[in-house]
Amino acid sequence: MIRIATAQLWVHDQDEALAFYTKSVGMEVKSDVTLPEMGNFRWLTVGPAGQEDVAIVLMAIPGPPVFDAETQSQVEQLTAKGAAGTVFLTTDDCDAAYAELSGRGVEFNEKPTDRPYGRDCGFRDPSGNNIRLTELRDM
């Protein structure tokens, strides 16, 4: 089982991110709302099935109407490098989750490794965001 706290990720393409998180990571859509009063801003969230209180918000990188050209370029450069931060997905069994997600086509950049806080591994989503799959130990 994967558990997450609410997080926001900047993504280059919301539809591509939606397909990745629902098909490859196995999450479900929590909300998909377009707000015309905010320039057709799309509020898109995904999360684990059966857990209504947790979600990842997939935020589209704003276009020129929101940012000037220089700021837009900086945002795109940062997010292309995965600088939007790291989202931690916690699981009861890191090795089993790794095998399941690998079977669905997720390409990991780190295999499961023991660390002081538990076992974890990492992958990047299509927009380059860092994702940590973590099995926490009782301390």
Short description:
Helices cover 24% and strands 40% of the residues. By secondary structure, the protein is an alpha+beta fold.
What does this structure look like?
A hairpin with a 2-residue loop joins strand 7 (about 110-115) and strand 8 (about 120-125). The model has no long low-confidence stretch (mean pLDDT about 80). The chain has helices at about 15-25, 70-80, 95-105, and strands at about 1-5, 5-10, 30-35, 40-45, 55-60, 85-90, 110-115, 120-125, 130-135. It is of the alpha+beta class and about 140 residues long. The longest helix is centred in the middle third of the chain and has 12 residues, at about 70-80. It has a 5-stranded mixed beta sheet with strand order 1-6-9-8-7.
How much strand?
A: 35-45%
> What shape does the CA trace take?
globular
Sequence of secondary-structure elements: EEHEEEHEHEEE
Low-confidence stretches: none
Q: Main β-sheet, in a few words?
A: 5 strands, mixed
Quick check: average pLDDT?
82
How is the largest sheet built, in terms of strand order?
A: 1-6-9-8-7
Which structural category fits the helices and strands?
Answer: alpha+beta
Q: Quote the distance from N terminus to C terminus.
A: 20 Å
Total number of strands: 9
The helix content is 10-25%
What integer value in Å does the Rg equal? 16 Å
Number of helices: 3
